[in-house]
Amino acid sequence: MTAYAKAIIAAVLFALGLAVGWVTQGWRADARIASQRVDHAKVLADIATATEKTQRAVRQYEKAANAAITAADQSATERIAKNVEETDRLRACVAAGTCGVRIVTRYVREPRSAGAADSSASTVGDAALELDREAASRVLDLRESIKLDAEKLDYLQRYAGTCWRARVEAVK
Questions:
Q1: N or C: which end of the chain has fewer CB within 10 A?
Q2: For strand 102-108 and strand 124-130, is the pairing parallel, antiparallel, or unpaired?
Q3: Over the stretch 13-61, which tens digit does the pLDDT of each residue have?
Q4: Which alpha helices (DSSP H) does the chain contain, by range?
């Protein structure tokens, strides 16, 4: 064999070796990629399961919170309506003159002399002031406003508590 033929055979064998190495590395790379795809699919499935579980918890939280808020809203609305009804009844009674509004006061009389150390010299007394219709109406307006504000505060406190409890339950 001539040196030229030996060089060609060596080149062909070298090329064959490169081709076999190339194919073998391709198979290994395909196996790695397939393994990574399987691992990736498992991770995606785990993420999907966790997302679905979280979505169910959020929906459950929303349902519980909405139910509690609806109940609190209905209760507060009923109490406000009763307070308005009572105030309207009292206004009608005052307007008709069948009842009145009195303010009970307490007062302490000061001792007559500035140097008196005797505590029995001052007395405590009670008195009730009868108000005219206009003043009584203003007192009833004030009463209604105070009761309405108290109901609003109570409602908001229960709303906040309900939201907090529902969030705690959803986290569990």
A1: C
A2: antiparallel
A3: 999 999 988 888 888 988 899 899 999 999 999 999 999 998 998 888 8
A4: 3-96, 133-171
Chain centroid to Cα 33, Å, comes to: 47
- Residue 111, Cα to own-chain centre: how many angstroms? 57
Structure tokens at 33: 């990629």
Concatenate the DSSP letters of all residues of 65-78 into one string. Answer: HHHHHHHHHHHHHH
Q: What is d(CA 105, CA 5) in angstroms, rounded to the nearest whole number?
A: 129
90: CB partners within 8 A, 6+ apart: 99, 101, 140, 143
Q: How far apart are CA 54 and CA 81, in angstroms?
A: 40
Residues 163, 168, 169, 172, Cα dihedral to 10°: 160
pLDDT at position 124 is 52
User: Residue 159's closest CA among 75, 84, 83?
Assistant: 75
The mean per-residue pLDDT over the stretch 110-116 comes to 58
Q: How confident is the model at residue 72 (pLDDT cuts 50, 70, 90)?
A: confident
Quickly count: other Cβ atoms within 10 Å of residue 101's Cβ: 19
